[in-house]
Design a protein that fits this description.
Number of domains: 3
CATH superfamily of the largest domain: Glycogen Phosphorylase B
Bound molecules: (1S)-1,5-anhydro-1-(3-chloro-2,5-dihydroxyphenyl)-D-glucitol
Family: Belongs to the glycogen phosphorylase family.
Organism: Saccharospirillum mangrovi
GO molecular function: 1,4-alpha-oligoglucan phosphorylase activity
Number of helices: 35
Radius of gyration: 28 Å
InterPro entries: Glycg_phsphrylas (IPR011833), Glyco_trans_35 (IPR000811), Pyridoxal_P_attach_site (IPR035090)
CATH architecture of the largest domain: 3-Layer(aba) Sandwich
Helix content: 40-55%
Enzyme class: transferase
CATH class of the largest domain: Alpha Beta
Shape: globular
Length: about 850
């Protein structure tokens, strides 16, 4: 820092903090030191991998300093913290994010340049941390960023999967899954904490001992697994706190191995070990279907038991056996029902291990837990057979029975005296051919707050999913609309737009995203419009190169880029998009003069490996793309590209280049959506249904700046009530009939007639459960409007700017503030270094 700079009083805190905490020269020294000292190589020989590692380790010095300061602050003030329990954290890459949040990005670029290295290239060396399926896991990651940025004490708890979400390849257009190996050669961001390992019990039986006044239950476990924590530091933006994401890895317990080993069972001991280590081996790739597998239940219990034990250990370190402060210091958020088993686990610990009375333990649980619901889809609502529970977690089944008994005989009977049907309906145990434990019911009963993830979704949770619970506890069900971190999803992924924004409004917009509203005044300014669209075009040029690199397909950056990126699912209706593409193609073949703006339809999507129709839709998109992209008759007006292996780091390249954001789920099915927010923030115009957060996006941006179409939630319900018949549309709409029949020919799969027929089949004989045909005409009309608006460059630029300017609400900091106000009641503690 020069004398002059030091003397100048900074205008804002952000302006002062924005200065890098190190010079390029000093940073070079650190990078070289790690290259030689920890990577065991040297400048002339080092691979890009080694440079990336050395750079990450150099940055880690700043990260760790912040971590230590934050931990000291938290223990000094004995802070109340939220513990965010989630089976998934879809972190993506960390180097770029950490550099941005620490204001080290530019200085690192300069340092590396001096060493003959390019930062952008090195960033590409980092494997994605893909420990999640989609929206739910990425939401958790955005929330960690916001919690740290807002100086809120928080710990993320999850599973240290050896293999994250599978890597997707296409072979002749079909999805092939390959294992993801994100940490095959070690990961520079994680720190193993063997001193905080925990033991987790499984299986066995429960003994009832009659010693004192009340009988005591003793769980004799059949198996003990070691849970070893790996900590990932979460760096807040702009010099804020560094929190921890703690991920548990399963290991065989040593003592168990030795018993078998000494009995001469060397191979058996190895097999035991392999079994134990299977628990954290792989992420289940189903996003909205319940796997129902024993290993999945064990994964859930494994990480919940380790996390609850860790929370209790941290509490007891400061408070010993005095539990009075526990609910004042501990909040536990359940990210979906996946960690619901943490409720009976905390009960078990308090009652069995610490001899607490049932009533007191239950009082604590209800104050501590809260639950976020992410879906209404019945196939995603978790249930476990009582049989499986009895085998794996016999003591927890007991406790669940007790919770259920209290709930039904106290609360339900008081509200609906003698109503057995109601008791059956609300029971945590579903009676039937096979008795089941309903994890959603357990989560609602055990929590003090339950939230949906967008307003319309939360309304439906109250009216359709849990109406009786809402009647019973009118204060319990609430809404927290999702959000996304603007640090990753604008500042880091779209540096050109970020720089343009910096020229016009306060540079602390990544903290106060509402400040983007300042751009509304610029929406009609021709110069600003030009600059904004020039940024979009440069981003498109970059993506064009990436598309070519990944697929060999050539597209023009002058075309309209229309983007649908999300998991492949019928309710998200990628096949509606596909049918419309077929309609456009047909119109172009019928009339080569057909007037349309050249358009590139871009897709990115993984299908759950066992979801056959979803995989068929991927195959169909690839086959249709092949045919269209190689058809010289249509004059390059239409291109279709499905990029392989869609993931966070690919999203970061696609989103800044998007003109149109496809958000076309059947109304009532997409709980929120978060890609919709990212795309609009980066200046894409939404074509979408009135579903999930689209409704709130359209409210913020204004109806003139989105293309809303299709059936509403109420219209879908009414259609179902009067009986929906997809043939009404097939028989009466010539274009729908033609494109469906086309799919059923061999036009797109020469020599293989009917290879794409399953889509047509599901839309006709299958009853079209997601109302694709009912919404087709409205969608096609909305797409006409997109085309017309794009021809008017000024109108388009204006709407794109207004989209960026009005997305402040979807800052995940705002979501977290809502959680703090409505659910967690936390206080911020900036670190006192
Ligand atoms: C998931 O990603 C979501 C819901 C769910 O039940 C399971 C998974 Cl893995 C998604 C919702 O589909 C999406 O609408 C929402 O935006 C996201 O969760 C975050 O809330």
């Amino acid at each position: 820092v020069t004398k002059k700079a030091a003397a100048k009083k900074p205008a804002t805190k952000a302006a002062s903090a924005r200065k890098a905490p190190v010079t390029a020269k000093a940073l070079q020294g650190k990078i070289i030191q790690h290259l030689r000292g920890t990577q065991g190589t040297y400048e002339e020989k080092a691979t890009p991998q080694a440079w990336w590692r050395a750079t990450s380790f150099a940055v880690n010095e700043f990260v760790m300093a912040g971590l230590t300061d934050t931990q000291k602050t938290h223990s000094r003030y004995d802070t109340r913290a939220v513990n965010y329990l989630s089976m998934e954290f879809l972190m993506g890459r960390l180097l770029s994010n950490n550099l941005h949040n620490l204001h080290l990005f530019d200085v690192t670029r300069a340092a590396l340049e001096g060493l003959g290295q390019n930062l952008d290239d090195l960033l590409e060396e980092e494997p994605d941390m893909a420990l999640g399926n989609g929206g739910l896991g990425r939401l958790a990651a955005c929330f960690l960023d916001s919690l740290a940025t807002m100086n809120l004490p928080a710990v993320g708890y999850g599973i240290h999967y050896e293999h994250g979400l599978f890597e997707q390849h296409f072979r002749d257009g079909r999805q092939i899954e390959r294992p993801d190996a994100w940490r095959e050669y070690g990961n520079p961001w994680e720190v193993c904490r063997p001193e905080s390992a925990q033991q987790v019990k499984l299986y066995g039986y429960v003994e009832t001992r009659y010693e004192g006044a009340t009988p005591k239950k003793v769980w004799h476990a059949g198996r003990t697994i070691k849970a070893v924590p790996w900590d990932i530091p979460i760096v807040g933006y702009d010099g804020a706190n560094v929190n921890i994401l703690r991920l548990w890895e399963s290991r065989a317990t040593n003592f168990f191995d030795w018993d078998v080993f000494n009995a001469g069972g060397y191979v058996d001991a190895q097999a035991e070990q392999a079994q134990a280590e299977t628990i954290s081996k792989v992420l289940y790739p189903n996003d909205e279907t319940d796997a129902g597998k024993e290993l999945r239940l064990i994964q859930q219990y494994f990480f919940c038991a380790a996390s609850v034990a860790d929370i209790v250990r941290r509490y007891r370190r400061a408070h010993g056996d005095d539990w009075t402060s526990f609910p004042k210091l501990v909040a536990i958020q359940l990210n979906d029902t996946h960690p619901a088993i943490a409720i009976p686990e905390l009960m078990r610990v308090l009652i069995d291990d610490y001899d607490m009375a049932w009533k007191d333990a239950w009082g604590i649980c209800q104050q501590v837990f809260s639950y976020t619901n992410h879906t209404l889809l019945p196939e995603a609502l978790e249930k476990w057979t009582v049989r499986l529970f009895e085998k794996v977690l016999p003591r927890h089944l007991d406790i669940i029975y007790d919770i259920n008994h209290q709930f039904l005989t106290q609360q339900v009977d008081a509200q609906w005296p003698g109503d057995d049907a109601m008791k059956q309906h609300l029971s945590i145990i579903e009676e039937g051919h096979e008795r089941m434990v309903r994890m959603g019911h357990l989560s609602v009963v055990g929590s003090h707050k339950v939230n949906g993830v967008a307003q319309v979704h939360s309304d439906l949770v109250r009216t359709d999913l849990f109406p009786e619970f809402h009647e019973l506890w009118p204060e319990k069900l609430t809404n927290v609309t999702n959000g996304i971190t603007p640090r990753r999803w604008l500042k880091a992924c779209n540096p050109r737009l970020a720089a343009l924004i910096d020229q016009h409004i306060d540079a602390d917009w990544p903290l106060h995203l509402d400040k983007l509203k300042g751009l509304i005044a610029k929406a009609d300014d021709a110069k600003f419009q030009q600059a904004f669209m020039a940024v979009k075009r440069e981003n498109k040029v970059d993506l064009v190169a990436e598309i070519h690199r990944l697929t060999g397909i050539e597209v023009s950056p002058d075309a309209l880029f229309d983007v649908q990126i999300k998991r492949l699912h019928e309710y998200k209706r990628q096949h509606l998009n596909l049918l419309h593409i077929l309609a456009l193609y047909r119109r172009l073949l019928d009339n080569p003069e057909y007037n349309m703006v050249p358009r590139v339809f871009l897709f990115g999507a993984k299908a759950a490996p066992g979801y056959h129709l979803a995989k068929d839709i991927i195959f169909a998109i690839n086959k249709v793309a092949e045919r269209i992209n190689n058809d010289s008759r249509i004059g390059g007006k239409l291109k279709v590209v499905m990029l392989p292996n869609y993931r966070v780091s690919l999203a970061e390249k696609m989103i800044p280049a998007a003109d149109v954001s496809e958000q076309i789920s059947t109304a009532g099915k997409e709980a929120s959506g978060t890609g919709n927010m990212k795309l609009a923030l980066n200046g894409a115009l939404t074509i979408g249904t009135l579903d999930g957060a689209n409704i709130e996006i359209a409210e913020e941006a204004g109806a003139d700046h989105c293309f809303i179409f299709g059936l509403t939630v109420d219209e879908v319900k009414a259609l179902n009530a009067r009986g929906y018949n997809p043939y009404d549309f097939y028989d009466h709409d010539e274009e729908i009939r033609a494109v469906l029949d086309w799919l059923d020919s061999d036009y797109f799969t020469p020599g293989q007639p009917g290879a794409l027929a399953s889509i047509k089949h599901s839309l006709l004989q299958g009853g079209d459960p997601y109302k694709v045909l009912a919404d087709f005409r409205a969608y096609s009309d909305a797409q006409r409007n997109v085309d017309e608006k794009y021809r008017d460059g000024t109108a388009w630029a204006r709407s794109a700017i207004i989209n960026t300017a009005t997305m402040g609400k979807f800052n995940s900091d705002r979501s977290i503030q809502d959680y703090v106000d409505r659910i967690w009641h936390l206080k911020a503690y900036p670190r006192d270094n």
